[in-house]
Specification:
The protein is of the alpha/beta class and 268 residues long. The chain has a single domain (27-219), classed as Rossmann fold (3-Layer(aba) Sandwich). It has helices spanning 2-9, 12-22, 32-45, 50-61, 73-85, 101-114, 127-133, 138-141, 143-158, 202-212, and strands at residues 65-68, 91-94, 119-121, 164-166, 183-186, 191-194, 263-264. It has a 7-stranded mixed sheet, sandwiched between helices. Bound molecules: iron/sulfur cluster.
């Protein structure tokens, strides 16, 4: 199976140029044929390696394939794989204005090591303008609205013209994420969603990072297993859930990018 995926990726550059010439930003429609194709791919790729899954995604969707990364360990692993599979894949970061400096510096370290320039996508308003409009930091009083304005709206614009996006979610991260498909339809954003690391464990991710010296956020060594925006991320004690430091004490557990309730898996 690997041979099929790896052979086809070498045609991706030619395909990209030809697709770009067509110049259409039409969103992908979930037709019955596409639904059947996604269901078949999801079943076929369930036991595939992350590299095989990414190669399939590149062959099928590049250059209309993208990924939003916050430079978590999983995103960094996918970037390291893309460096050999298709480094021209357009990748972006939702630069809310509230990110840790360490996260922004990691973007530069990834660019230096892999030659992949992750594009920073920013909200229309700066942090100063946004806080002035709302009479203070909205993340303290209405984090859902803040995430919607500074992440989801930016994402919606960033994926115009895209047909598929990859995510670094793992099924062992949360009961919600345990339902993630390898290939499915993300009805919130009208994109095919591919999760090449769904079957990887936290321990396998970190073994790979250390073995291959993949750059990672130094905050992970300081008690931050999951890193988002600075005001909404805290250190986690030993034994706490790895995502318990995100929006701690608010009841909020996701920013809305990867809510499984909006996704349909292989069984479309
Ligand atoms: S994580 Fe916090 S600061 Fe960042 S966009 Fe969401 S609410 Fe705002």
């Amino acid at each position: 199976m690997l041979g099929i995926y790896m052979d086809t990726k070498f045609n991706a550059d030619q395909k990209a140029d030809s697709d770009q010439l067509k110049g259409t930003d039409r969103p992908l429609q979930l037709t019955p044929d596409l639904a059947a194709e996604l269901q078949g791919a999801n079943e076929q790729l369930e036991l595939a390696s992350p590299e095989q899954i990414i190669s399939w995604a590149v062959d099928r969707f590049f250059p209309r394939l993208t990924m939003a990364t916050a430079f978590g360990p999983e995103g960094c692993v996918i970037l390291s794989m893309l460096a050999t599979i298709q480094p021209r894949t357009p990748i972006f970061n939702l630069d809310t204005g509230y990110q840790f400096q360490e996260t922004l510096e990691l973007r530069d370290r990834i660019a230096e090591k892999y030659g992949i320039e992750v594009e920073l996508k920013k909200p229309e308003m700066t942090v100063e303008q946004y806080e002035q409009l709302h009479g203070g930091p909205l993340h303290q009083t209405n984090p859902d609205q803040c995430c919607f304005d500074r992440k989801i709206r930016v994402l919606q614009k960033a994926v115009v013209g895209m047909h598929a996006w990859m995510s670094g979610i793992r099924r062992d991260q949360s009961p919600d994420r345990a339902q993630a498909a390898i290939v499915g339809w993300d009805k919130r954003f009208n994109l095919v969603k591919i999760s090449p690391l769904a079957n990887m464990t936290k321990s396998k991710i970190w073994k790979r990072i250390l073995r291959e010296e993949i750059p990672y956020n130094p905050l992970h060594d300081k008690g931050y297993p999951s890193i988002g925006c600075l005001p909404c991320t805290r250190q986690v004690d030993v034994g706490e859930d790895e995502r318990s430091g995100r929006w701690s004490g608010t009841g909020k557990i996701e920013c809305g990018l990867h809510s499984i309730e909006f996704e349909q898996g292989g069984g479309i």
